[in-house]
Amino acid sequence: MDTSQLDKKSPFSAIKWIQSILIVFFVLYLIIWAISSPVSKYFIKPILHEQGLALASQTSISYNPFLSQLTISDLSIYPVQKDETQVVFSLEKLTVRLTLFRLLFDEIAISKFALNDGYIKIEKNATQLIIAGVDLNKASAEPAKKEPVASEATPFLYQVLLPKLAINRFNIEVDNKVNNERSQHQINISALLIEQLIASQGSQQAKLTLQSIVDSAELKVSADVTFEQGQGEIASVLALTQYPLEKIKGYVSELSDLSGKLSVNSEQRVIIAPEQLKVAVSEAKLTNNNLALEYQQQFFKLAQLEHSFKDIALTLSQGKMTELTGTSQLSLNKADIYYQQPSQKLAHFEQLSLNDIKLEFTDKPHVNIASIVMDDMFASKNETSEYAPILTLKQFHISDIQINAQQLAINKISLDNLQSEVILNKDKALANLVSLPVAKPAEQTISADSQATQQAPDVEKQAFIISLNEFSLTNDNTISFIDNSVDPIYKRSFYIDTLYLGPLSNAKDKQQQQTPFELIGRSNKYAHFTFKGFTQPFAQKPVHHVKGYLKELSLPAVSTYMKQAMQMELKSGQLNTDIDVTLTGEQLDGKVAILLQGLETAIADSNEAGALIDQGALPFNMALGMLKDRNGGVELDVPLSGSTSDPQFGMGSIVTLITQKAIWMATQDYLMKTFVPYANIVSAAMTVGEFALKLRFEDLIYQAKQIEPNDEQQTYLNAFIALMQNKKDTRVNICAISTPDDLDLPAGSKITDKSQINQLKAIGEQREEAFKDYIIKHGQIESSRLLLCAPKIDSSKAAKPRIVLSV
Q1: DSSP-derived pairing of the beta strands 107-124 and 159-178
Q2: Among 203, 508, 690, 753, which one has the highest count of C-beta atoms within 10 angstroms of its own C-beta?
């Protein structure tokens, strides 16, 4: 045989064999590529059918063995009982490419993973969780096949490499039925990018970037993940913009309404270690715009909420919190709280700020707040009426708050520009109090455990300590009272110049500490008061002490309430009182000194001038006359003693005073000699009904409707000022008499209409105030020497408007 020919044929046949093998593999790859789609669908369809699902006919699933690439396009899955438009899962295109030769190096290299235009539907209710048409709860409820327990887990020896995973335009639709309410959510992933993923059994690392729209809110997330042997770190940045809160209303069954726009921005690191989790938030901010809540027809609306965090550190060890530190700021703007109707506002504030909040938790939780400030607030305002709110404040300020499990400590509470309007309607109900929710009584159920607890012996617990260093009012503070249930309408204002409360605490070492207080203020135009003292409310036997005075309280102003009780009104007079009282436990000890100046009475609702002597007025005025001193004052010293639960007040001094002053000694000659230089304005007379020798000033005549003193009255006014300047101890009652002329009514008209009576009295009050102001301003006369009385009306035909002065 010719061996040379065989040697020549061998290389040729080897090449031919290689070509044949390549052709076979090429043809085989082409066949695999060609039949991959129908074969895949053939095996997938029965699996889907078991779940009641079908695969759309246009779906293509192909495998390219040349590139080791799986391509799925136009994939649609829908329920069998529905048409192809009711899709539960779809993909326009998914491409996965592997680099197979890297398997030789124990690496699973995914050189390409791209998913575009996908959709998945998730449905959840009380019993089902259906994802892409598959009920996961049903699948988990089926009995699992028993498998032999592996004695030892097989280690995963491969490393997964994924340079880039890209998901674009993937829509997740969530239909959730909670508490008989349907909540629908849309999650549109614009772009999800995972880069540099390297994962093995011992270590994992990757970078993630997400851009999506969640229920119309933009969500951005970026994260850098590194793990080694189960320990690692996740550094992330999150930004959620304008998330609609109405989308989560169904998850809060207690709320009837929930709306608003929530935004969250945060930068954090999560460190995972054996049996320990650490979260470090370097900076975070939570913002909520146009928040609205409704709970049992009670509404809370807030224009803006901002809560910022900084340097938050949280540590969990074995599931328990062992450390929490950080700082935060909280701000709430333009809040309204109302019941049923927006016009019935229970409360409102322009801004509420919690500044410099410091969180500390090592062994025990501790919170420090530098200040809590509420600006421009009011309470109880009916916007459909002309009434002012019950309470308004320019600023409510609390500084240096410390809170822990054992105590609450506050350095200072101050209220700036407090204005309070208390208005009673004709039924004696608060007219400016808006409707309030009615609290339902809680059902009391006593369990066996609670009964055992109640029957167990009492264990002494450490009382929670509350301490306050200072409370005060600043700037202008006014409390106004209007009573529409009486006629005429009663009005009084209190101006609080100083309100101070010193250190107060229920701590054991401070329970005997005296807490000083001080109240200084004014009422209406001339009345003023000062009260000082201390309190020991937490002492074993509480002690309270007050000392002070009330000066120049005009008695005709409070006559409205006197006439209801005694059918008698106070025509004129002024009250001065000094108080020095101590309450120890229930034992009251002290005294009250009362000085009544220029007190005169009249029968109730006697508006006509000259009707002073009638039934009832004579005996009372006679008794007062026996008590009056030479200046027309009644001075009483009333000792207070006994128990507050059964008070016994010492009243013997009043009887003594009446006896001592029973003999009236005064002479007309003495008074006339004293006041002769002023005879043009002063005369003397014995008033029978008042059992007192009276100095009588000539009347000061006014023109109809005149309020302010004019030039024609200067001679009288100058003489009166001279008398008051010369007689320092003289006090004068100022009584205005109005006539029908002041209302353009004919002279002698009998006034019976209540509105006209009130108008004439109002004119009289204005004249009295204007006259008093003039004398104080031009004569430098003390206001306490000029006493105002209740205005009267003179309907006689020759009557003229005037001011009547008396001593």
Answers
A1: parallel
A2: 690
Is residue 362 classed as helix, strand or coil in its secondary structure? coil
Q: What is the pLDDT of residue 607?
A: 57
**Does an H or E element contain 398, and which?**
strand 391-404
Mean pLDDT by runs of 10 across the 807 residues of the chain is 52 73 78 82 87 88 87 90 85 90 85 92 86 79 55 74 92 84 88 92 92 94 92 94 90 87 95 90 95 91 95 89 92 93 92 94 88 95 89 95 92 96 90 77 50 47 86 94 86 93 92 94 92 93 94 81 64 85 88 79 59 41 53 63 52 36 38 51 46 62 92 87 84 90 87 87 91 92 88 88 87
Q: Burial letters for 6-42: b for 16+ Cβ neighbours within 10 Å, e otherwise?
A: eeeeeeeeeeeeeeeeeeeeeeeeeeebeebbeebbe
Nearest to 700 by CA among 572, 806, 804, 807: 804
| pLDDT for 8 | 52
Cα–Cα dist 437/381, whole Å: 15
Residue 301: what residue type? K
**Cβ(63)–Cβ(82) below 8 Å:** no
Q: Kindly state the tokens that stand for 798.
A: 């020759």
Neighbours of 647 (CB within 10 A): 11
Contacts of 69 (CB under 8 A, 6+ apart): 63, 95, 96, 97, 98, 112
User: Beta strand 527-536 with 543-554: parallel, antiparallel or unpaired?
Assistant: antiparallel
Of 775, 757, 760, 755, nearest to 708 by C-alpha is: 775
Buried b / exposed e along 396-430 (16+ C-beta atoms within 10 A): bbbbebeeeeebebbbebbbbebbbbbbbeeeeee
Query: Measured at the alpha carbon of residue 398, what is the angle toward residues 394 and 404, in degrees to the nearest 5?
Result: 155
Nearest Cα to 206, choosing from 218, 192, 219? 192
Q: What is the pTM of this model?
A: 0.75
Query: Closest Cα to residue 732, out of 680, 699, 697, 777?
Result: 697
Helix (H) or strand (E) holding 65: none
Structure tokens at 658: 């009446």
Give the end-to-end CA distance of the chain in Å, rounded to a whole number: 166
CA 354 to chain centre: 12
